[in-house]
């Protein structure tokens, strides 16, 4: 592993086992374009497979900190505003192979943690991974995705991997929303 030693593991981040799982899962699913809510340790895990990462952070302090810490041409970090309907300049019209949802801390919906970021990812990604999937709020958010037609691929550690099915409303086919490899 090229980046693991640089990753700022903490009580708030993915743990070392989850890091390894993200690396092997990104490889197995053959994903290269990642939409990440919550930069940090997970960003380094996706870099291990040379993924391109668009990472969104709501807290300016953490955004500045992680921008300085990561500093890699394959990572673009932007701020998002944590509200029920998220909109992010440039990212709104893009599509991704995988959405990794590990932010915001808490959410705008009382019992549905990170629902707004999970929904944002659900309109733009083929796969979604939710972190902290052992918590009630995240479990509720996963149940919304499953009601929308997302299918669980695997649940391991505190990570829940979901795959888009044909039942999920398709991503609007636009010239600038083609899958890119
Ligand atoms: C749980 S962190 C995880 C970030 C990243 N995916 C990782 O694995 O390290 C998610 C959010 O918590 C906040 N955060 C990050 N590091 C933190 C820390 N050490 N203490 C408190 N909050 C933190 C940031 O706003 C971030 O978006």
**Average pLDDT number:** 92
CATH topology: Rossmann fold
* CATH architecture title: 3-Layer(aba) Sandwich
Shape: globular
Please name the defining characteristics of this protein.
7 strands, 5 helices, Rossmann fold, 181 residues, 7-stranded mixed beta sheet, 22% strand, binds S-adenosylmethionine, alpha/beta
Helices, strands, pairings?
Elements: H1 16-28, E1 33-37, H2 41-47, E2 52-57, H3 60-70, E3 75-79, E4 96-101, H4 115-122, E5 125-131, H5 136-147, E6 151-156, E7 159-163
Parallel strand pairs: 1-2, 1-4, 2-3, 4-5
Antiparallel strand pairs: 5-7, 6-7
Helix pairs in contact: 1-2, 4-5
The structure holds S-adenosylmethionine.
S-adenosylmethionine (SAM) binds at residues 10, 12-14, 38, 40-42, 57, 59, 62, 102-103, 105.
Short description:
The protein is of the alpha/beta class and 181 residues long. It has a single domain (4-163), classed as 3-Layer(aba) Sandwich (Rossmann fold), CATH 3.40.50.150.
What can you tell me about this protein's structure?
With 181 residues, the chain is an alpha/beta fold. It has one domain (4-163): Rossmann fold. 28% of the residues lie in helices and 22% in strands. It contains 5 helices and 7 strands. It has a 7-stranded mixed sheet with strand order 3-2-1-4-5-7-6, with helices on both faces. It is globular and about 40 Å long. The relative contact order is 0.15. S-adenosylmethionine binds next to helix 2.
């Amino acid at each position: 592993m090229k980046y693991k030693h640089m990753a700022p593991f903490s009580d708030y981040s993915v743990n070392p086992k989850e890091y390894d799982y993200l690396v092997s899962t990104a490889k197995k699913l053959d994903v290269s374009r990642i939409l990440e809510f919550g930069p940090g340790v997970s960003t380094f895990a996706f870099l291990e497979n040379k993924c391109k990462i668009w990472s969104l952070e709501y807290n300016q302090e953490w955004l500045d900190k992680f921008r300085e810490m990561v500093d890699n041409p394959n990572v673009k970090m932007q701020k998002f505003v944590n509200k029920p309907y998220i909109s992010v300049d440039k990212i709104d019209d893009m599509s991704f192979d995988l959405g990794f949802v590990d932010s915001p801390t808490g959410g705008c919906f009382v019992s549905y943690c990170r629902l707004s970021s999970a929904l944002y990812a659900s309109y733009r990604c083929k796969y979604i991974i939710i972190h902290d999937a052992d918590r009630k709020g995240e479990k509720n958010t996963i149940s919304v995705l499953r009601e929308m037609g997302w299918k669980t691929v695997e649940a391991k550690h505190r990570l829940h991997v979901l795959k888009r099915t044909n039942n999920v409303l398709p991503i609007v086919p636009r010239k600038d929303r083609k899958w890119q490899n």
